[in-house]
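Notes from the pairing session

We agreed to fold both candidates in a single pass and log them together. This is the raw record for the first candidate, unedited. Please don't reformat it; downstream parsing expects exactly this layout.

Candidate A
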Amino acid sequence: MEGSKNTCAAIEALLFAAGGAVEKRDLREALEIEDPELNEALKTLSEKYEEEDRGIRMIELDGKYQLCTKNTYYDELIKLVNTPKKHVLTDVLLETLSIVAYKQPVTRQEIEKIRGVSSAHAVNRLVEYNLVQEVGRLDAPGHPILFGTTDDFLRSFGISSMDDLPGISPDRMEDFRREAEEEAGLVHVET
């Protein structure tokens, strides 16, 4: 590629044509450039979208890049296209989703052990909503499915990577453990 302006235009074309999130590695290979040039072009392109009064922006999703519309123009967008289906995340779905997000990769059985109830319906609904996906199989008898979050999960919650999830303090974890023991009818003994 000659010059960063052409590199920026090429990245824009690739992201537009792909429609979804594209791995940085795939961009580098398609453009036949090294990381420093790619990083500079991605930074330049992202700044260009943020500085100018544009209807689209470039987002990063866990090392992948995608073009998307700016939230500012959502009202106008829904007048043109069908209103996107809003998925209702019940407490059960949010609880299950948080377990997957923090424990991934995780099996349905592990989710059920944490929740204490069957989670098949909740996991299936989260897969249907494309917030959770199969990420492999556990090397154990029966080879249970391992679940993890998707790019749509990151996009929906406005985070770039799983590192952006809020942490849970050790004190709060102890409170959760105590509450779970009380709910299960176990006696907590202070040591």
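Candidate B (folded immediately after A)
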Amino acid sequence: MTMTTSNQPTTELSTPDRIAAHQSIVFDNVSKFYGEVLGVNRVTLTLPPGITGLVGPNGSGKTTLMNLMTGLLRPTDGTIRVLGESPSAGQHLFRHLGYCTQFDAFPAGMTGYQFIYSFLRVHGLAHTEADSLTWQALERVNLKDAAKRRVEGYSKGMRQRARLAQAISHQPKVLVLDEPLNGLDPMARAEVIALFQQLAAEGCHIIISSHILHEVDMISDQVVLLSSGYVVADGDVSGMRTEIHEHPIQVLMRCDKPSLVASRLFEHDFVVEASLHDDRRGLMIRTREADRFYGLLNSIIVDNDIDVETVTVADGDVNAVYKYLIGNEGEGR
């Protein structure tokens, strides 16, 4: 990883740099304050095509940075360009950008199809095009069979995929995703990650926020570490995997056969702990090898026809690894 310097002066771009800026997301000495409260401070970044992970604990500035690049917030200082456009460009920027927030809210009574179709129609697409793009988006997130069902009857993972389908429905060049893997079971998680990788291969900019380091390690081309509103480091994720493996992650799971899952998991030495919740509908698992764990969990679910309600990584252990990785870089901020 390379350290990011702050307070860099704005310079006139050469012709090659201007072309590169029109193919990137550029933050030039950007700060955002909510009154006297710091959101982000003196951020200077260039995000190329591919998958970029924004990593940090709650309150580090991830969502503020996303809201700035999507135009939902305006910077107190500095400038932002998304493929050469200001985020305040409104409808013009809509053609290039999709945003999937972490808020699990839907209009009452809407089906999955209506949720996406109405979004496209509101933004000016004709019926035929909106209908075609809606079905394409539903197919890409594997929700076609549930398209005519009301979203309020969807599982948490299905609702997450419905919001993702809306974000990609108009085929944007920039996709901004706030905790997009939260609540997905291992099978859905693998499908969504494959979709991200496919979109990135097609030239899309994908910005993913997460506090789950092993997810970032698995899917990102580059990562931005944030702490208390500052970018403390940015670069590739090589070397992160070793540090993650030395610190067990904690996974919470809700399903209909937790005892069976626990017994199968305990057959493998990379599972450190598995304990049942008091209501016998869930369990807590600690593992040192996230990739092998999710592969195993996927097999257990398929082989035993297990109904999964949710799979979530708990914060505590991951934040400890995050603090270990940034070391003294975040001190004094």
